[in-house]
Every structure is written in C-alpha cells, then in structure tokens.
Design brief:
The chain is of the alpha/beta class. The protein has helices at 2-8, 20-39, 61-74, 88-94, 99-102, 107-122, and strands at 11-15, 45-54, 79-84.
Amino acid sequence: MTYNAFCAAQAYIVATDPEPFSVEGLAKIMQLATGVQTELNKQLRFVGFVLPKFNPSLRGALRRQMLDGVQQHYGPQSVLGNVRQDAVVPEAQGMRQTLFDYAPESRAAADYLSITTKLLTRL
C-alpha cells in the first residue's frame, strides 16, 4: 500500500517517533520512496518529518540522540515539527469530530496548525 501511495503521490511527509525501532523503520521508508522516485515517479519529493504524540517531559538522552541523528542525516530542516501529547486528540476521535471542531484552542491543535503552515510553505 505504501508503495502504491508513493507511485501516486507528488510529495510525502513521514510521521515518526525519535526512538530506535522507529528510526530503523524510517530508513526503510526513505529507501522505498527513493526507489519509487528513481524508477517510477520522478515528481515524488520528500517534504519532512512530523513527530506525533510528542511528550516534552520525556527528555531522555536516547530520544534526543535519535532526533539529532535524523536531523543530521536528513538535514536540519527535515523535521516539520512535533505534536505534543494531548488528551483531546483521542477524545475528538471518540466524538467523531476533527480536533479543530472539538478543541480548537488545544496544544495539539496549535501544533498541527504550525506544522500545516510550514508544510504549505514547502509545497
């Protein structure tokens, strides 16, 4: 399914966590995208990474090291931003509402709005 999405897309973003298994999976996703771009979809381009469910209170050295490694390997501008973990996200899902309808003043809504603004400037 990811392969087909890359074939049809013009641009893509990747959601990931700065943790060892996620970073390993990230490398595989980027390899797949590069292969599709080389062979089938020359217009495909990488826009950036997003870190959902980000918890700023978890300031472990490993997470910082993983994030630094991603930025070092893919460039300092590769991370579009993070979305702070917020209870209103699953609540909005449970109510079958968008986050912006359910809790437009929430931290998560502000984070998504910031990421969207950056994303639009890059497209």
